[in-house]
Amino acid sequence: MSNEYNNSNVATLGLDDFSIKDGTLYVINGDFTEKVGLIMFYAPWCGHCKTMVPTLKKVADENDNNDVVYGSVDCTDENMGNDKLTEVAQIQGFPTIYTIHPSGKLSSYEGGRDEDGILTHIDKQVRKLQSRNDKKSKKI
Questions:
Q1: Could you read off the pLDDT of 43-91 as tens digits, one per residue?
Q2: Strands 36-42 and 18-21: what pairing?
Q3: Do β-strands 36-42 and 96-100 pair in parallel, antiparallel, or remain unpaired?
Q4: Is there a contact between 12 and 3 (Cβ–Cβ < 8 Å)?
Q5: 10-131 in CATH: which number?
């Protein structure tokens, strides 16, 4: 199966990149540590996903902030264990998008699904991360 995100800044993730602690989903891939961003759970046959893929690719490819990451999970890819991940993560529909927090914790993304909506959301997350980092550096 081809990956819709080949040659882009959207990381392809699988079951081994996640854990569940106390009922909360976390991304544990080291490239996502102490960063903010989005992860989209999708199915290649889904019409809404086909619309969202180029939008996420464009936002990710134009990103020049090292504190922001983007990931994707093809929920139909059994080779990466994503069918199990989809079940464990209780994905009910496609696309399902999560915000990545610096702790690796994922929370539901409720923003717009267009480029402006994503960028506005990411901007807010980056400001929170910078504020958090500023507070940490003042304590030292």
A1: 999 999 999 999 999 999 998 888 899 999 999 999 999 988 998 888 9
A2: unpaired
A3: antiparallel
A4: yes
A5: 3.40.30.10
